[in-house]
Design a protein that fits this description.
This protein is 75% helix and 1% strand. With 432 residues, the protein is mainly alpha-helical. The protein has one domain: Growth Hormone, Chain: A (Up-down Bundle). The protein has a two-stranded antiparallel sheet with strand order 1-2. α3 runs parallel beside α5, α10 packs antiparallel against α13 and α14 packs across α15. The longest helix is centred in the middle third of the chain and has 33 residues.
Length: 432
């Protein structure tokens, strides 16, 4: 073979290391995202808040996370991911310290706001690294593995976090979490590089990180929304992730302890198991989609399956614990199908708008829990029948059913909208 066409691509170990340091921030972001679920009682007591207040406190993370997605995508395209990931980790550490030391609800909300806005760079930064360090055929798999890493963070925010909180309290644990985040910022700065060329290897992406785009920022966003798939793919994952993170990220533990008699540790373990199933479903669906060369059919099947599971969980009271567990696990596994959307949207727009498109899609992903967590809390307070346990409000199965029905409605809409997307056949297309 002529030497002129030989490609000196980076070794897999180095590529996964670069990607993995970005994944460390995503893991931390997911940990912080669902941590309130296992300390609902502590937060409600310390800050004297009800279900709606707790929903808003948790959702402060999502408010800034969603707001940062479009700027993150644009900056990832123009500046490269290394600086974004490092800055994000540093600000997340500061936000974590503010949250752990907060004397009032206002300070706690500020801490959550800083955490959400800063870790918002992690997912898009990771995928931007993947587009340069991995071959295109591995992109959906890398997206799925990103979700897997995030869920590991969520698992740490389940039983392990609950055990540590019981041992030393939530504030010292969250302070330690902030210090670990600072160490990740340092590691990213010293070791991550935007492109293999900076290490003497051939890049898998023809675009140079931080290179100029033919589109201005406003024109780029306008161009992205010229594609029909962009609109649809941004609305769809909110229904999927809204269900998973509204349940496992906030209301699942009190729902299971109140209505199924589980201990907080047992309920947290069941929530974590659902998130693990989600983590498994991500790379499984991403890899299978790459293998069959199609995006749409698998996405459709996954969304229909999760609608069926959530409908049973929400509308059938007193399910046998084994059946409830199976439904939660299968709902988590099917939710992994949402990872297909990232490869789907990247293939649906101009290549030099990939980072911006991924950021806009991630904004749609997080819109689900951002809207649903406080909305479900508001419904719970409306349906509250005056019951308290150890100074904390207790909500009936009917109250949860009414609140969770909002999630189910969005999930049904998502399943319907997928039918209107246009298949890309796993190939980059410009005009759809």
């Amino acid at each position: 073979m002529p030497t002129s066409i030989l490609k000196n691509y980076p070794p897999a170990r180095l590529a996964w290391t670069m990607w993995g340091l970005g994944a460390a921030l995503y893991l931390i972001g997911f940990y912080q995202r669902v941590a309130p679920a296992v300390m609902t009682s502590e937060l409600m007591k310390d800050f004297s808040i009800d279900a709606a207040g707790l929903g808003n406190l948790s959702a402060f993370y999502f408010y800034s996370y969603v707001a940062m997605q479009t700027p993150t995508g644009i900056l990832a395209d123009r500046l490269g991911p290394r600086k974004l990931l490092c800055a994000g980790a540093l600000v997340a550490a500061i936000g974590g310290l503010i949250f752990s030391l907060s004397p009032t609800m206002i300070w706690a909300g500020l801490g959550r706001l800083l955490i959400g806005g800063s870790v918002a760079v992690a997912f898009v930064g990771m995928l931007k690294l993947a587009s340069h360090w991995f071959a295109p055929r591995q992109f959906a798999l890398a997206s799925g593995m990103a979700l897997f890493c995030g869920i590991i963070g969520a698992v740490f925010a389940g039983v392990p976090l609950r055990i540590m909180i019981d041992a030393v309290g939530w504030r010292p644990v969250m302070t330690a979490s902030a210090l670990i985040t600072f160490m990740v910022a340092v590691a990213i700065w010293f070791f991550v590089r935007d492109d293999p060329s900076e290490k003497g290897y051939t890049s898998h992406n023809s675009a140079v990180p931080g290179g100029s785009s033919k589109y201005t920022i406003v024109a780029g966003i306008r161009e992205i929304f010229r594609y029909r798939n962009t609109w649809l793919l941004c609305l769809i994952p909110g229904g999927v992730v809204g269900c998973v993170l509204t349940f496992s990220g906030l209301w699942g533990v009190p729902f299971l302890t109140t209505n199924y008699g589980l201990t907080p540790a047992h309920a947290a373990a069941l929530n974590s198991a659902m998130l693990v199933a989600w983590a498994v479903g991500g790379p499984l669906c991403g890899g299978l989609s790459d293998r069959i060369g199609l995006r749409k059919p698998l996405y459709v099947v996954c969304n229909i399956a999760l609608v069926v599971c959530w409908a049973a969980i929400i509308f059938i009271p007193a399910l046998p614990l084994s059946l409830l567990t199976g439904l939660l696990l299968f709902a988590g596994l099917a939710s992994g199908g949402m990872i297909i959307g990232f490869a789907y949207i990247k293939e649906s727009v101009s290549p030099d708008l990939g980072g911006t498109a991924l950021g806009i899609l991630n904004m749609g992903v997080m819109a689900g829990p951002m809207i649903m967590q406080p909305a479900v809390g508001w419904i719970l307070d409306l349906k509250w029948q005056g019951e308290f346990l150890n100074g904390v409000k207790i909500y009936s199965f009917n109250a949860y059913r009414c609140g969770f029905s909002l999630m189910l409605a969005w999930a049904i809409l998502s399943a319907v909208l997928i039918f209107f997307t246009k298949e890309t056949h796993c190939r980059q297309k410009i005009d759809l």
